[in-house]
């Protein structure tokens, strides 16, 4: 059996969704028989391979211009795109930023905070620019599979991956489907 | 013509960062930068929330060390309602924190750092990762999985979830520990202690056979910061100790007074601020935190096995602070051992089962500071509220932030040591990333303020033009 290729990336996220993937614990050994992990924050490949992957997994929402680019790159390179976790599904906790203009948010972070001395808002061509609003990834790319939860449980993730390995689109039900 | 190398994203770290390395006409490294490219804005968007929501909201800053934010936040909330929490509540919070240290430190050593050490800096990047370790050293990988699982299970037994638990509340915790839960953890702890001792042997062997590299890899003088209690290592509650580069104590203060001692500097080219010791100014007052920082500030550890190991560590530089960044890996495992021993100690105390777990209060003091040692260093949460407990101001100084200057310096030193413009191999660039990995940065944490961090290397000409971008895709 040829292994299915997976690439993963985290965007406006806390890394918790990727950690929940690791929480499948020993089952990772089983999974690796059927799955090849290509690019991912946990490996040293920086971008999905040119020839593409079967499954692309995005955790985290869209909060800056770099993340938008990354989501689009993943969409281009994968057949099935999975939005992993509440942030990727609908923006999650980061949506709280949408109640404030981004200038105020930056100002609080880099100028006003009590411990900041002679602050200024960082600005450089190497830094991504904040989007006006935070959103789920489906605002910029088409999503095929949604796995909500903050984070989704390891069981939900394992179930979804085994379904994908078997060529099925996972349908989460019962305990496996939860928002936080 | 000079050039600029870009490494992006930096992998096997938490969050998104990139490195730019500026190279002059002769092919020598002029200057390198560590850019953190994410900012989410917690300091602003928590305004208007009720104080008791904060332990749930702020743990979403980080999925690797949510418990540290959860607890620092709860400690700030204890002050907001003006209570001392019951003894058992404190013990249970500490227990959860030990679980956090064990899972986070084990994850870092095995899943993130060990591929460089056990497979080699120059190993094929396609296999230089934890899955490569699983293939090459399955027994070791299984041990790593069990260590992480043990820590995560402690968190789950107490807080119902492994990541983003629901446990600490203002005044204490929301559930007692059952006998069944205690016995489950106790049943496994000896195996965990044994496993961590094995890991310590692995890192010591590696250091022993790579002496020269270790001593010359991002080794520099700095101050150090960490919590202590009576001079001993402390990770839940103690005074903040700051030592100078010779190890002399500069300050020992109550965390609530942090604004008198710590200030933060801002640069244009990164979303991560640079904390420093206020009286010395920036950058002279920069210091290091995290495992190496804590081992350099404390005199002893309260648990026997970890204390034995600390004594051996102190010999390395004859009692003076140990300076080379690779020692972060060693000290991280000494703390891992402490956390496992402390877990056992806490569980063997019958008070851990008491149901007196919450202090009530109908007061709102309007302000609270929570300070804790997160796995990556000292963490400050500072809130102000109105008389109804609505959050008005939030200030956060996050563990990884304190190490920003040190990481930038390490990147610059290692780039200068290994890279010259003529021939740049992937393995050499990986050494630059490995310098950052020593610090186990948590970039989502450090940029709680906004966004995301990819890591890359650009080649710039001496007039600033980008002439090449080095990517490390295989195909
Ligand atoms: S959904 Fe939750 S766990 Fe996942 S990235 Fe967002 S905040 Fe973190």
Q: What can you see in these coordinates?
A:
- The complex is a heterodimer of chains A (180) and B (475).
- By secondary structure, chain A is of the alpha/beta class.
- Chain A has a single domain (4-95, 132-176), classed as Rossmann fold (3-Layer(aba) Sandwich).
- Chain A is 29% helix and 20% strand.
- Chain A has helices spanning 16-22, 27-31, 65-77, 86-90, 102-112, 154-165; strands at residues 4-10, 35-37, 53-59, 62-64, 78-84, 130-135, 145-147.
- In chain A, the strands form 2 sheets. A 5-stranded parallel β-sheet of chain A has the order 2-1-3-5-7, with helices on both faces.
- The model of chain A has no long low-confidence stretch (mean pLDDT 93).
- With 475 residues, chain B is an alpha+beta fold.
- Among the domains of chain B are: 3-38 and 409-472, no CATH class; 86-219, no CATH class.
- Chain B is globular, with a radius of gyration of 22 Å.
- The structure holds iron/sulfur cluster.
- Iron/sulfur cluster (SF4) binds at residues 13-14, 16-17, 59-60, 85-87, 92-93, 150-151 of chain A.
Which key phrases capture this entry?
heterodimer, A: 180 residues, alpha/beta, Rossmann fold, five-stranded parallel sheet, two-stranded antiparallel ribbon, 6 helices, 7 strands, 29% helix, B: 475 residues, alpha+beta, five-stranded mixed sheet, three-stranded antiparallel sheet, globular, binds iron/sulfur cluster
| Quaternary structure annotation | heterodimer
Structural class of chain B: alpha+beta
Helix content of chain B: 40-55%
Secondary-structure-based class of chain A equals: alpha/beta
Mean pLDDT of chain A: 93
* Shape-level CATH architecture of chain A: 3-Layer(aba) Sandwich
CATH H-level superfamily of chain A:
NADH:ubiquinone oxidoreductase-like, 20kDa subunit
Count of helices of chain B? 15
N-to-C CA distance of chain B: 29 Å
Low-pLDDT stretches of chain A: none
**Silhouette of chain B:** globular
Provide the succession of SSEs of chain A: EHHEEEHEHHEEH
